[in-house]
Amino acid sequence: MTEPQWLEAWTAEDGARRVDELFTRSFDGSPEGVWSAPGRVNLIGEHTDYNAGLCLPTALPHRTFIALRPREDDQVRLVSAQAEGVWEARLSDIAPGAVQGWGAYVAGVAWALAEAGHKVGGFDAAVDSCVPFGAGLSSSAALEAAAAVALDAVAGLGLAASDAGRAELVEASRRAENEIAGAPTGGLDQSASLRCREGHALLLDFRPGLKPLESGVPVPFDLATADLTLLVVDTKAEHSHVSGEYGARRAACEQAAQLLGLGSLREIAPTLGGIGIDRALTELEPHDPDGVLRRRVRHVVSEIDRTARFADLVREGRAADVGPFMLASHASLRDDYEVSCRELDLVVDSAMAAGALGARMTGGGFGGSAIALVRLSDVDTVAQAVAGAFADAGLTAPAFLLAPPSAPAA
């Protein structure tokens, strides 16, 4: 029998101690404070954020911690337990294409806040994290969100005190990732890390122009009372949002919308009574000899509809009934969006064979993680089945974590 490898979340006290000690070893003196932000898992709604669609994430109990102290100048000095050396830059030198490395995710947030008109100065910071890296669980967004709430606090901006303010921090974090780090993500990850609530999923609506209360609606998601839990499987098949494949999917969606004369593919979504999927696919056919654009569109439109239906079931207290939507989502991501891989498919197949109620890949794809909705009594059985399937296939052993909906950045 193959024993699963479990990844435990740090306690708040342990995480704070780690970064406080790292800061003190690295810089002269103590930090002004410690802040943290969670990774996220997306229940459903994949590759829909940049198509003005719907997503339904929850925050992980696994968090990135940052100890930070402001400076009198515009120098930024960063250290991480996951990287060697000190990352350094001046805020005045931060610009798109101007900096490289992991520090761009942190310094980019300061740049974006300054671009939005907020007064932000230089700082020293130390970072440590128990969010699995390269697992599709938004370790980069957790880093950005932790930096955002830390800078908000030391600069006295007050944005983290309200959901509307947190939406501004989401935008700063998204700009940091898109424009400074160079990853074309759509805002789902940062929204989840900054705006989720403990015990809830967050139904995100990415149509432009919505107010914060319209764009992010908490949905109670208390699995424990239904004797259920969410099992996350890090396949160890690493992925990267900076890679060309992610950008190619986004470009295809933008091309399809342009050909259809639409602002976004959301306008086709059946839940909004748009132009209709059949008409859209017919209009695309002359421009799409290999069928790629139509497959991408079909995924986005159907995924938005699945997300709305999934959220309705959760609101009704019927979390045990969402499994078919998870499976349909995975099939669509595998076949129409073509972002799955052998490891992700194996998690879904082996988890379902062992009794999971539903399973799907989560995150951008091309590796990363998958999730399974399981009964509490079946956690060990499902985890052992997945671990055994990987061993039988000669694949790197996956890692497992439980994902109760957790608290946002603070």
Order of helices and strands: EHEEEEHEHHHEHEEHHHHHEEHE
Number of strands: 12
Strand fraction equals: 15-25%
**Overall shape:** globular
Multimeric organization: single chain
Report the biggest beta sheet as strand number plus sense, adding barrel if it closes: 7 strands, mixed
Structural class: alpha+beta
Radius of gyration from the CA trace? 21 Å
Low-confidence stretches are none
Distance between the termini: 41 Å
Helix run count: 12
Q: What is the typical, i.e. mean, pLDDT? A: 94
Percentage of residues assigned to helices: 25-40%
Pfam families: GalKase_gal_bdg, GHMP_kinases_C, GHMP_kinases_N
Enzyme class: transferase
Domain GHMP kinase N-terminal: 105-194
Domain Galactokinase N-terminal: 21-70
Describe the protein in words:
- The strands form two sheets. Strands 2, 3, 4, 5, 6, 7 and 8 form a seven-stranded mixed beta sheet that branches. The protein has a five-stranded mixed beta sheet with strand order 1-12-9-11-10.
- With 410 residues, the protein is of the alpha+beta class.
- The mean pLDDT is 94.
- 54% of the residues are buried.
- The chain has twelve helices and twelve strands.
- The chain is globular.
- It has helices spanning 12-26, 103-115, 139-154, 163-180, 188-195, 212-215, 244-260, 277-284, 292-315, 323-335, 342-353, 379-392; strands at 5-6, 33-44, 54-70, 75-80, 87-90, 123-129, 200-205, 216-220, 228-234, 358-362, 369-375, 399-402.
- Helix 2 (103-115) crosses helix 3 (139-154).
